[in-house]
Amino acid sequence: MGILVECPKCKVRGSVKRKVCKCGNQVQKSNSKNYWIDYYINGKRTRERIGRSKQAAENRLREIQTAKAEGRHIKKNKNSLVTLGSLRDWYLNLDEVKELSSYPRLQVLTAHTVRLLGKNTIVSALKLGKVREYRKRRSNEFCIPYPGKHPSLTTINREISALKTMLNVAVRNEIIEENPVIHAKLLKEDNVRERILTDEEFERLYEVAAIHLKPILLMAYYEPMRKEEILKLKWSEVDSSKSQWFIRLPANRTKDKKNARVLPLHPRVKEILVSLPSRFHHGRVFSYNGETFNSFKTSFKTALLRAGIEDFCFHDFRHCAVTNLRKAGNDYTTIMKASGHKTMSMFLRYNLVNEEDVAGMKWKDTDRDNQSISGSLKDIGLNPDVVLESLLLERGQNNKLGVYQK
Q: For domain 199-359, which CATH number applies: 1.10.3720.10, 1.50.10.150, 1.10.443.10, 1.20.1560.10?
């Protein structure tokens, strides 16, 4: 019974004491060697691959020695049999995962974790130190779409969160025994956006935008909808049976997939929808040269550059719509019903209060309040002038005693 080390070059296992393998490879100096444990159960030799952690191999061997001494059944550690790459393939092939609206994003997030942690890494070799190392390496990389830009803290947190979720699902399905990084904490984020467009900025952006982008910008600015909800809007979801048009999003088109939403159309949005030729095709509302599209990143970026608008992303339009609806005098519950926000805390992240709102703050009418107090004193038979004189006299005496200090 003991620990073996596997040569990364020829895959031959031997004692941890050997320095050089038969193939000539310096095993002890290698960083990619794997550890195994070797023991006997009822006279039958058994080997388990543990991974690249010698400490994990020692812990597992100690666990087996204790079980044998106590006469307990030795259960094979499933974590030592599953690699990170094979686990990702299994996870992404689950029907429940494929049905998620975030499935394409999950593919990207888990691809990064498997790439840096190693697809052949045994699950049992994952430790909190590995997560810290991953976070450091990932933050030093550059984004592929944006050379010169590093991944944000939010992005790295989402990747680690996706890894933890994948491992938790594997535990529930008895693919592995435990999540070795369940206690990995996410770093605190500061990703609250506080950018909205003024009316002048929006008109400037609308003026320089491409023809197919204009109706999308109008709807995003006036209606508290998400990008996918706008882009994939169908004419069957536009209710034009009355003078006031509505957008009726079914539950499967909303973010939570549970609650349908109804949004009244702004007159300006209604006006441009009436002019769209796609209205007679009964398919998607927005098209380009008669063809539907699933992205407008380039045209939107071009419009921002032409309009001279910085630090603005498309999702910020949702902040604009919610804030403008609040400024128009709508109550919070009505806006939340249209926007789909379930909690006040999340709604307040989108409802931005700027300097203009603060400047319009209302003050108490002191004269009117004084008149009200005076009237109240008279109602109970007291002379307001006498009461005021008594209060001033009392305050002056207290000042002499040092009660009121500046």
A: 1.10.443.10
